[in-house]
């Protein structure tokens, strides 16, 4: 807010894990999201998951939206537009950026051990590599 001022329009995006997101299990028993380009059949009747016509996890999106609202309030961006989604974070952030025509994506980064990055990846790194919108990474 200090960098872009009061006149800017702000979107706060939170992306949660969806039980509908395909996962794989590593040899150590840790389930991680799979971000391979493949299509799964539309989920039908998954227990505990409310899906819309596009097969998106509605409950997960609501939780992510609530978390985005909390983060915006904590950052004193009370007029920000909270956006919640589920799935791959980098893809969801880029989709939101294109949908809303943003000028810059601001994403936080934190130091992680190389082994953690091996298992979970880096959203900021994926955004820097794949975005056609300028990305500002803030530690």
Description of the structure:
There is one protein chain. The protein is an alpha/beta fold. Helices cover 32% and strands 19% of the residues. It has helices at residues 58-74, 89-100, 114-120, 123-130; strands at 11-16, 23-25, 31-33, 81-86, 105-108, 135-138. Helix 2 (89-100) crosses helix 4. Strands 1-4 form a two-stranded parallel ribbon. The chain has a two-stranded antiparallel ribbon with strand order 2-3.
List the helices and strands and how they pair.
Blueprint: E1 11-16, E2 23-25, E3 31-33, H1 58-74, E4 81-86, H2 89-100, E5 105-108, H3 114-120, H4 123-130, E6 135-138
Parallel strand pairs: 1-4, 5-6
Antiparallel strand pairs: 2-3
Quick description:
This protein is an alpha/beta fold and 139 residues long. It is built from 4 helices and 6 strands, in the order βββαβαβααβ.
Relative helix content: 25-40%
**What topology, given as strand order, has the largest sheet?**
1-4
Shape: globular
Largest sheet, in brief, is: 2 strands, parallel
State the order of secondary-structure elements, H for helix, E for strand: EEEHEHEHHE
* Number of helices, where a helix is a run of at least 4 consecutive DSSP H or I residues: 4
Q: Given the helix and strand composition, which structural class is it? A: alpha/beta
As residue ranges, the low-confidence spans are 23-49
Q: Care to count the β-strands?
A: 6
Radius of gyration: 16 Å
**Oligomeric assembly:** single chain
The average pLDDT is 75
Query: End-to-end distance, in Å?
Result: 16 Å
Fraction of residues in β-strands? 15-25%
